[in-house]
Design brief:
The protein has 204 residues and is α+β, with helices and mostly antiparallel strands. The protein has helices at 6-16, 23-31, 85-97, 151-154, 186-199, and strands spanning 38-49, 52-60, 71-72, 75-77, 105-109, 113-115, 120-128, 143-150, 160-167, 170-179, 182-184. The protein has five helices and eleven strands; from the N terminus they run H-H-E-E-E-E-H-E-E-E-E-H-E-E-E-H. The relative contact order is 0.20.
C-alpha cells in the first residue's frame, strides 16, 4: 500500500488491528506459554507532521536498570489499578512524555511481544492523535529524549536488517532499523516489523 497516503494508512490500521476489547484474550493465549511473564503495554502514537504520518518514540534514560539508552515506545508495566492494557499504555505515555489521554484515539492492538531477557509480555496499542501531540513534558528520570520518526522513512528497506540470535537453544530473528544516528532494535524492532507486516500484506 501507499504509506504516503495518510488516510489509507489509518483506515488500514483500523481494519487490520485487533480490537482493543480483544487485547486481554490475546495476552491470555501467550501468557499460557509464558506463565511467569510480567504484563506491560506500549503506545504507538501516530500523528501528522508536515502532512506526513510520524510516530513518537523515546530514548530511555541511561540511568535505568533495564534497557537503558535504548529506543522504545512510551509504555511500561501493568499496574493493579489499570483496568486494561490500553489504560496502561495511556497512563504510561502521560507519565513519561506528558501526552494527554484525551488527545489519543486507540485504533487497536498488535499481537503481544515477549521479551526473553526482561521477561515482559508487551501489548502494543496503536493510536492516532488527530489534534497532534500537544505540549509534551518528559519525565527526565526515565526519558532522555523524544525520537520522532517518519513512517515513510522508517519503511525504507535500506535502513533495516535482521540477524539470527540464539539464546537458551532458541534462535530468534532480531530486527534492526538504523534511523539517522539511532539504532532501533529488540522488542521495539519486532513491534515495528509486525506493524509493517500489517500495513504491507501480500495483496495481488
Amino acid at each position: 500500500m501507499n504509506l504516503a497516503n495518510n488516510t489509507e494508512v489509518i483506515n488500514r490500521l483500523r481494519q487490520r488491528l485487533a480490537p482493543v476489547d480483544l487485547a486481554e484474550s490475546l495476552i491470555d493465549t501467550i501468557e499460557g506459554q509464558q506463565e511467569k511473564a510480567r504484563k506491560a503495554a506500549v503506545l504507538l502514537p501516530f500523528f501528522l507532521q508536515d502532512n506526513e504520518l510520524h510516530l513518537v518514540l523515546i530514548r530511555r534514560a541511561s540511568t535505568l536498570r533495564s534497557h537503558s539508552g535504548e529506543i522504545a515506545f512510551p509504555g511500561g508495566k501493568v499496574d493493579p489499578t489499570d483496568h486494561s492494557v490500553v489504560m496502561t499504555a495511556l497512563r504510561e505515555a502521560h507519565e513519561e512524555i506528558g501526552l494527554q489521554p484525551e488527545l489519543v484515539q486507540p485504533l487497536g492492538v498488535l499481537d503481544p511481544v515477549f521479551t526473553v531477557v526482561s521477561n515482559y509480555l508487551i501489548t502494543p496499542v496503536v493510536a492516532y492523535l488527530p489534534q497532534g501531540v500537544g505540549e509534551l513534558v518528559l519525565q527526565e528520570s526515565e526519558v532522555a529524549e523524544l525520537v520522532i520518526v517518519s513512517l515513510a522513512r522508517l519503511a525504507d528497506p535500506s535502513i533495516a536488517h535482521t540477524e539470527q540470535w540464539t539464546r537458551n537453544n532458541q534462535t530468534r530473528t532480531v530486527h534492526f532499523y538504523d534511523y539517522g544516528h539511532h539504532r532501533i532494535w529488540g522488542a521495539t524492532g519486532r513491534i515495528i516489523a509486525s506493524l509493517f507486516d500489517l500495513l504491507t500484506p501480500h495483496d495481488s
